[in-house]
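Subject: design request, 103 residues
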């Protein structure tokens, strides 16, 4: 059995993306951030929908055409395909653990 909170790397110089399940239609991943953000230029513009939940920590997501939203532990959002977005902020003092479902 696995646990989403186990095996958190000590060195988080880079954001961690771990694929948990992948099929032709769905990918589920664990993302671990600690002060990481999206690059200053450009937006994520994905071909699939993405449902994302913060399991631990806090983050701020920015959207090209909507106000930013702050996500705390337990908060989730569905980002439709091609909705331009980026991670503006994650807590620099503790790990933010995300569960992302791409479908």
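Subject: RE: design request

Done. Sequence follows.
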């Amino acid at each position: 059995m696995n646990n989403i909170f186990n095996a958190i790397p000590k060195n988080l110089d880079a954001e961690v993306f771990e694929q948990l399940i992948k099929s032709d239609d769905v990918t589920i991943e664990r993302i671990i951030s600690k002060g990481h953000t999206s690059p200053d230029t450009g937006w994520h513009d994905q071909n699939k929908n993405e449902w994302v939940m913060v399991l631990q920590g806090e983050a701020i997501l920015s959207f090209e055409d909507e106000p930013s939203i702050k996500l705390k532990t337990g908060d989730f959002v569905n980002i439709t395909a091609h909705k331009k977005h980026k991670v503006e902020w994650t807590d620099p003092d503790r790990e933010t653990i995300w569960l992302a479902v791409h479908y």
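The domain at 16-102 is CATH 2.60.120.10 (Jelly Rolls).
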